[in-house]
Design a protein that fits this description.
The protein is α/β, with parallel strands linked by helices. It has eight helices and seven strands. Helix 1 crosses helix 8, helix 3 runs parallel beside helix 4 and helix 4 packs parallel to helix 5. It starts with 8 loop residues before the first strand and ends in a 7-residue tail after the last strand.
Length: about 250
């Protein structure tokens, strides 16, 4: 079923590449007016150019979700430009891997600042904007929010935290017409996976073997799931996570 977002106002954090970019493009194709945020201005401008070239409406705001002032700036831009916020996809995040005894405090704090505080802080200001009407929020979790992975303890912890935040905030604002859900991808064929396990070799083959479907997912497949969760077709769904993992967690 095609989800229509005609004239809906959508914010996508971490929208400059990978899942965020694919989802921003999908929202725009479905009729939404999209604002994307990220730290890389050139990539952000390229996504906006691609959307406008295809007849859509988009803007980019440089923002680091770990910084309160940046989040405020982004939400203020959305509301001042479009008058409201209908949908937010909190996708900004980073990966971190390595043995626990080698993890530094700086790495730990950066991971939690972006992956956890970034989601919490974004929701705080997004919900403030949405309380004037209603809205839908989708947070990016991971299979790592449901299972453990060796040499990824900090990343696993951040995604378990996102799962808890999603459920708690969904309950807190359910009666105010704001839905909050999460998407939990398996391994998606993006630069992030390449950085973690390389573009070929034993580590990549091991990761691939965890997916019963026999392949990694695509950013477009995750985007389709996000659009469903944020749509009226899912208006009785809140406080849950949609696993899109090629069967990984079912094995």
């Amino acid at each position: 079923m095609q989800n229509s977002y005609t004239n809906k106002i959508v914010l996508v954090t971490g929208g400059t590449s990978g899942i965020g970019k694919a989802t921003a493009l999908a929202f725009a194709e479905a009729g939404a007016k999209v604002v994307i945020t990220g730290r890389r201005e050139k990539e952000g401008a390229n996504v906006v150019a691609e959307i406008t070239k295809n007849g859509g409406t988009a803007a980019f705001v440089r923002a680091d979700v770990a910084k309160d002032a940046d989040v405020v700036k982004a939400i203020d831009f959305v509301v001042s430009t479009h008058g409201r916020l209908d949908v937010a996809f909190n996708n900004a995040g980073i990966e971190i891997a390595g043995p626990l005894n080698e993890v530094t405090e700086e790495q730990y704090r950066r991971a939690f600042d972006i992956n956890v505080w970034g989601v919490l802080n974004s929701m705080k200001y997004e919900i403030a904007a949405m309380l004037k009407s209603s809205g839908a929020i989708v947070n990016t979790s991971s299979v790592a929010g449901h299972i453990a992975l060796p040499q990824a303890s900090i990343y696993v912890a951040t995604k378990h935290a996102v799962e808890g935040l999603t459920k708690a905030v969904a309950l807190e604002f359910a009666k105010q017409g704001i839905r909050v859900n999460a998407i939990a991808p398996g391994s998606i064929d993006t630069d992030m996976v390449d950085r973690l396990v390389g573009k070929d070799g034993e580590r990549r083959n091991w990761l691939l073997s965890l997916h019963p479907v026999g392949r990694f997912g695509t950013s477009e497949e995750i985007a389709a799931a996000v659009l469903y969760l944020a749509s009226d077709a899912a208006k009785f769904t809140t406080g849950t996570t949609l696993l899109v993992d090629g069967g990984w967690t079912a094995a």
